[in-house]
Design goal:
Blueprint (H helix, E strand, L loop, with lengths): L1 E8 L18 H13 L1 E8 L17 E2 L7 H4 L2 E3 L4 E3 L1 E6 L16 E5 L4 H10 L5 E5 L4 H10 L4 E5 H8 L5 E5 L5 E3 L2 E3 L3 H16 L2 H10 L12
Parallel strand pairs: 1-2, 1-3, 7-8, 7-9
Antiparallel strand pairs: 3-12, 4-12, 5-11, 6-9, 6-10
Helix pairs in contact: 1-6, 1-7
């Protein structure tokens, strides 16, 4: 049987497991790729990307893995490196702070003079940098992709003042942290999709048809409901 190699990045709940190097906890992307694999008659192998810059994950398509499923936003720059299936999710950036330390911060409009923590290569990075350029925030602190827990800890110590990240992920990451809350969602509108090699039109076509079938037969809605609490593709404001 064919093996479909899938690049993933962790920690990225609810898209994949929170336990680094394993996928025992599953996740939206894990369930989606298993369902796609079943549709196209392939077993699925997940391969962990460990680079500090998330955008580097696309460099492994075609060599280390066949596709990427990592809660991945479609952007013009990424489309130069990869081809994307139709989006299986529409979401957006969210903002989290330690409300005990910064109770006045309820949106990006309250960040003047404050430092925003983002993961290097995430779509939150240019948004945060634009806020600084416009004088609406004091600075940006970049964290390696795997250092998100360090960033979250820094919210309480003052290492950074706010974190910006895709809403479903940020909501899950802050859930166990006393005082840390998501204070704003829907900062952006982003299409989330599976990426394949730009030259692999055969795989792109097979997975596109398979995903459409999963949407039509209700499987994809059930996966979104399981992991997001809402079956619909449009999750801009978040359901959690």
């Amino acid at each position: 049987m064919e093996t479909l190699r899938v690049g993933v990045a962790e920690p990225d709940p609810p898209f994949n497991s929170t336990r680094e190097g394993t996928h025992d906890d599953g996740g939206l992307d894990i369930d989606l790729m298993h369902a796609l694999g079943e549709k196209v008659g392939a077993t699925v192998e997940f391969i962990l990307y460990s680079g500090a810059d998330f955008d580097g994950i696309f460099d492994g398509i075609g060599s280390k893995y066949d596709c990427v499923a990592a809660g991945t936003t479609v952007t013009p720059e990424r489309e130069k490196k990869a081809a994307f299936l139709p989006p299986y999710l529409i979401s957006g950036q969210a903002l989290a702070v330690d409300t005990r330390r910064l109770p006045r911060v309820t949106s990006v409009e309250d960040l003047e003079g404050l430092t925003i923590g983002v993961q290097q290569g995430n779509t939150s990075q240019p948004i945060a940098e634009r806020l600084v350029a416009d004088g609406k925030a004091g600075g940006v602190r970049l964290y390696g992709y795997g250092a998100i827990h360090d960033a979250l800890a820094d919210l309480s110590t003052g290492g950074c003042d706010a974190i910006m990240k895709l809403a479903p992920v940020l909501t899950e990451l802050v859930r166990p942290l006393p005082g840390v809350e998501v204070v704003q969602r829907g900062i952006t509108v982003e299409d989330i999709a599976v990426a394949v090699g730009r030259g692999d039109q055969a795989l792109l076509g097979r997975l596109t048809v398979a995903q459409a079938e999963l949407e039509a037969d209700g499987t994809l809605q059930a996966i979104r409901r399981k992991w997001l609490g809402n079956p619909y593709a449009d999750q801009k404001l978040g359901a959690l």
